[in-house]
Amino acid sequence: MRKIVQRSAAVSVVATLAVLVVGCAAESPLESRLEFPVVYSPANSNEMRDFASSNLSLRQDGTAELNDFPVGEPRPGTSPSCMEVGGRSYSGEGEWKLLSEAKLELQTPDGVALLYASNGKFGSVDWLDVSLYRCDGVELTFGLSSQLKMPES
Asked: Which residue has the higher pLDDT, 86 or 125?
């Protein structure tokens, strides 16, 4: 009798964990807060002179539309990963994927862009602003131009 109770308790714990994992995996950090398409445009004007007309639109299917967006090659061994951009920009279609809770990769025929979410309150991740770190020390920041998901009442 005691083994049956222990087994059913273990099965309940495993089932609860499975539900939590599946429920958490259903939406990415982006999807949980933002409405698609997610659109970003330049946020810090002084550093953005070369990319003042840039914008980025992320679609839910993993595709992206970029307009005059900085791309390049990531420099290995840097943290956060900095980009060798050199004034390069790309306009056209691309693909995006989350590499971690706070890091997004854009792939284009002309190069890559690694974007990092800003830090939210209490150590959380905030996708309202994203930054691309150039290897010359300049941080290019893009602010959200699309809608947030509003909490259901």
From this structure: 125
Cβ atoms of residues 84 and 65 within 8 Å? no
At residue 43, what is the residue type?
A
pTM of the model: 0.76
Q: Which of 27, 31, 34, 55 is nearest to 43 (CA)?
A: 55
3-state helix, strand, coil in the chain (%, to 5): 25, 45, 35
Give dist(CA 17, CA 56) in Å, integer: 37
Instruction: Give the model's pLDDT for residue 153.
Output: 56
Backbone angles phi, psi at 5, to 5 degrees: -65, -45
Q: Please write the tens of the pLDDT for every residue from 41-70.
A: 998 778 788 888 999 999 999 999 999 999
| Neighbour tally for 134: CB within 10 Å | 19
Return the number of other C-beta atoms located less than 10 Å from residue 122's C-beta: 5
146 with 93: CB under 8 angstroms?
Answer: no
Residue 66 contacts by C-beta under 8 Å, 6 or more apart in sequence? 54, 55, 56, 57, 90, 91, 92, 93, 94, 106, 108
